[in-house]
Specification:
By secondary structure, this protein is an all-alpha fold. It has 6 helices and no strands. Helices cover 75% and strands 0% of the residues. The relative contact order is 0.20.
């Protein structure tokens, strides 16, 4: 059942995360910068497909160091959520 839910499309990245998950994402992936998170999610929600989102995700990953060992797993989870936005 969990696998089915994780493959379901989502319409809005903000609504797809609970408040705790959102704070964790802001703290771990956006260096505690709520405005950076809000701007990124707004932009991602406005794109038409995952191919359009890839350059923005790359930019965010580079800017916020998502390839660092302590951020990598959370980044993968966030990117998987973003990918579901475009199913």
């Amino acid at each position: 059942m969990s696998e089915k839910l994780s493959a379901q499309p989502i319409g809005d990245l903000n609504r797809a995360m609970g408040i705790n998950e959102r704070f964790l994402t802001i703290n771990e992936l956006f260096d505690r910068d709520n405005q950076a998170y809000e701007k990124a999610v707004t932009r991602l929600n406005g794109l038409r497909n995952f191919d359009e989102a890839k350059p923005l995700l790359s930019e965010l990953a580079e800017k916020h160091g998502w390839t660092q060992k302590d951020k990598k797993k959370k980044a993968q989870i966030f990117i998987k959520l973003v990918r579901r936005r475009y199913l």
